[in-house]
Every structure is written in C-alpha cells, then in structure tokens.
Amino acid sequence: MEKQILTARHDKAGVQWVEITLNRPDKGNAINMAMLDELSGIARDLERDRAVRAVVVRAKGRFFCTGGDIEAWGSLTPHDMGRDWILRGIEVFEQIAHLPQPVIAAINGHTLGGGLELALAADLRVAIRHAKFGNPEARLGMIPGWMGTTRLAEMIGPSRARHMLLTAAPIVAQQAYDWGLITALVENEEGLDAQVSLWLDALLANGPSAMALIKGLLAQVHRDLRAHHAAAVAQAAGTEDCREGVKAFVEKRQPIYRNR
Predict the structure, then answer these.
(1) Catalytic residue among 2, 19, 94, 117
(2) Among 2, 56, 173, 249, which is 20 to 30 Å from 191 by CA?
(3) Catalytic: 189?
(4) Can you give the residue ranges of every domain in the chain?
(5) What is the tens place of the pLDDT at every residue in 60-88?
(6) From the candidates 91, 137, 187, 190, which is the catalytic residue?
(7) CA–CA dist 208, 190 (Å, integer)
(8) What is the number of other CB atoms lying within 10 angstroms of the CB of residue 2?
(9) Could you confirm whether 154 is annotated as catalytic?
C-alpha cells in the first residue's frame, strides 16, 4: 500500500528543504488518523533537523485537502471525538505551525474544513486560481475542530471569519487573496511551482535562527485554546443535529435539523 504522506528532501543552491505531499487523491486527500500520525512523526524529525531550512506542504490530485475524513470521526462518541480526534489533530497542526523552519502551503485545489486548518498552520500560502476555500462543518452540525475558528479569525479578521464559518459556503481563490487568507495567487501548476521557488529563494537566503525567533514571537499572538476547542467539538458531536448531519452526508441527502 502506497504511503498516504510522502516526503522528499531537496537541495537548492547548497541549502536543504523538505517537501511533504498529501497522497490520498482518491479520497480528496481527506485526513485520517494514520495521516495525523505520519505528519506528527515528520514534524518531530524536522524540528530537530538543523540542515533543513524550509518546508513545503502540497498535495497530489485535484484537491489540496477536503478535510478530516468523516469515516474517521463520524461514528466516534463525543468523549472519544474530543480526546482522540480533536486534541490529536490540534497537537499535530501545532507541531507544524511551531516548526522552526518557515512552512509554505502550495495549494493546488479545493481546501476545505480540516484541509483549510492545515493550510492555516503554514506561514505562507499560495493557491491556484481555481481553488476554493471553505469551512463546511456547520452543514454537518459540526464546528471546525483543529483550531480553525481562531486561526481563521487571526488571519482574516473576525468579521470575515464569521462570514465563512456561519454561511459554511466556500470562497474563491481571488476572494481568499483579497482577504489575505493567501498571499499569492497563480494561474496554473507551473505558476504554483514558480511561486514556491521564488519564496524558497528568499527563505533559504535568510538566517535560520532569525526566522525561527520571528516565528516564535508571532506565535504569541495565538492563544492556547486547545482544551476549549476540544470541549466545544465534543459538545457539538453530542447533539442530535450532528448525528443527523453525519448520517445525511453518508446517505447523500439534505439533513433535517431540529436544533437539539
């Protein structure tokens, strides 16, 4: 069985960087527990690898990432959801966000739910024009669980975060660029590679210790709300509406919510 997370080490002008590729294209690169475990191990190795100066996260297939795999969490009890799925995902994305190396998300397609949360853990984001971004969780009677609510508000402001989270409707890449959710917009895969290469040129020329310290200072803006997020997700998972939302998704029909 092919690995669901691929890694490759590259050399650019004598300086090393690592590429992490989500490799589950037949499932829209939806994240399962095995992928979280793989990402955690990769991040742990990168954290202590002083030779690696930058990290690029990208994906195979039509999508960057369509979120957390509903097959992985849809049948969990509220307690198990908060403890095993949410806290684990938050821990892994925090590992990525707190890497000493700058992290680039090269977004080749739709980026939804947990996929957007993964992209938000990166330092720089470039997207192809046909990509869409969204948090569809409310349509399932669920909420973003991996710190996406607060990270999104930090990135684009509370008003725009409310728009995305409460409508649960995706926005196009141009709007994501205008709002500052991404900081570069390209037309195609060639443009994506070119922009990543330009950013790597800049990052690999900088002092690695200085960049790590800058990331550490900026991280102070982000409050530690892990327990609060996990409790809120467990509460959402325990509602009849969430069970109906998950069931309707599996059955490919519109959910009937009763606000309980």
Answers:
(1) 117
(2) 2
(3) no
(4) 5-190
(5) 999 999 999 988 777 778 788 778 888 99
(6) 137
(7) 28
(8) 6
(9) no
